[in-house]
């Protein structure tokens, strides 16, 4: 009886966060974050209230994860100290200048995360992955239509012509759309690889469609940060699944679907009204690269039929490990390339040379964030400037200079970790990272495949967040990746 109630609570929240939340929108793109913020508050309130009744009326014991609970409690106290140190203003509570990600939002996020941990949504893995797949298919279809020049609901008409390239689909900003694709990709793999007792063929078809449409979303989001984080989740997925021949078969199917999806996106470039891909994304639709990817993924599938795929699975896993190491040392390569004073005269040089315009002007924003943190007094180094603190400091010290340098007009660090460091200090960021790492570790060492896939999704979201603005749209999904 108690488990049934707990599963019902989890399923309602999952439907809300993976079908309603990504699809709900307003008639103006700039209101999408506010619309989703209200949706998140309603869903979170229902979840928190349900779990409160469940835990205290039925006397449910929930002390299985005391370390996570302690970290969430310590983070809440740290944020209260931040609030007390920075004048207890209403802007710190609501942070309207930063998409409503003030203390109220963060406290609700913490309470919702706690509630999700208590009800263990992972027990409904097939329901979870099915809801994700249905949501991503709908989001991808809508986004693809806009990408090729169609706008069925007229949303783009509410956006200035020179801003339209930054918005896509029902999630709004293209970076947020890419982060969404990265997060749900590993969880769609679960539907493809695992078998439901009732709907085996249907779940596999849905899983394959989810993989296919996630790949389309990742590419048409047209952001380098998305491509990097997408590569990370695919590589990690390969490292984990290629140990088992049955899962390795579905991993190579996923690679094949990625190749087909990228090919389809490449063909859309022949449509006159289709949005052009940036230079780095165009590399991924190179016919030679796509032929290699499709052929390489098809060979293990043929060998699997003849039960001779063990060796190539090991080779694929070694390739994934080497690729992961290469991505991990990429920051060192960028640092070394930059300090040698080489100029970005080539495509590779523009990627490796870190200057003010690196990463669509993120270089300047990141440098500014480091300066803001370094210039803060010790109390604010520990507990931060509070919500909107980064925006206020950036506008005061760096905004005018950024306009002179031709930097895109902005007041967000476009890096979750640097932004959070400035606004909640070393203590806030440290506790947050400790909690996330603990959840990743707990899920990775779990024998359950679904738990491992959630860990990969969370890692992918963290990598994508290194290039994103601090917004409620993507932060809301954190709760369902724990």
UniProtKB/TrEMBL annotation:
This is O-Antigen ligase. The chain crosses the membrane at residues 12-32, 38-57, 69-87, 99-119, 126-148, 168-189, 201-220, 226-242, 249-271, 283-303, 315-339, 416-437, 458-480. GO terms for molecular function: ligase activity. The lineage of its organism: Bacteria, Bacillati, Bacillota, Clostridia, Lachnospirales. Its main location: membrane. GO terms for cellular component: membrane. It is a multi-pass membrane protein. Residues 302-431 form the O-antigen ligase-related domain. InterPro entries: O-antigen_ligase-rel_domated (IPR007016), WaaL-like (IPR051533). The keyword Metal-binding does not apply. The keyword ATP-binding does not apply. It comes from the Bacteria. Pfam families: Wzy_C. It is found in: Membrane. Keywords: Ligase, Membrane, Transmembrane, Transmembrane helix.
